[in-house]
Amino acid sequence: MITVVCRKCGYVFYKGTKVPNLYKIYASVGGRCPRCGREISWVPVDVKVKRRRK
Ligand SMILES: [Zn+2]
């Protein structure tokens, strides 16, 4: 399971088993976290991408 979350508030942008398309996520939220309004710079330092093995 891969999750992409806002590092500030923990809002989950993406959750799934496929590698997420960060640009699509970015575009769909308008470049900001919909919960806390934090601007997203998708140098994936602002997001946490977790990959877990079952
Ligand atoms: Zn947030």
Characterization of the model:
The radius of gyration is 11 Å and the shape is globular. It has one domain. A 3-stranded antiparallel beta sheet has the order 2-1-3, with no helix packed on it. The N and C termini lie close together (8 Å). With 54 residues, it is an alpha+beta fold. The longest helix has 8 residues. Bound molecules: zinc ion (ZN). The site of zinc ion (ZN) has 8 residues, from loops.
Overall tally of domains: 1
Across the major sheet, the strand order is: 2-1-3
Q: Write the H/E string, N to C.
A: EEHE
Topology, number of strands:
3
Q: Name the beta content range.
A: 25-35%
Runs in which pLDDT lies below 50 for 5 or more consecutive residues are none
What general outline do the C-alpha atoms trace?
Answer: globular
End-to-end separation: 8 Å
Offer a few descriptive terms:
54 residues; alpha+beta; 1 helix; 15% helix; 28% strand; globular; binds zinc ion
Please outline what is shown here:
The chain is of the alpha+beta class and 54 residues long.
Reconstruct the topology from this structure.
Blueprint: E1 2-6, E2 12-16, H1 22-29, E3 47-51
Antiparallel strand pairs: 1-2, 1-3
The chain binds zinc ion (ZN).
Zinc ion (ZN) binds next to loops.
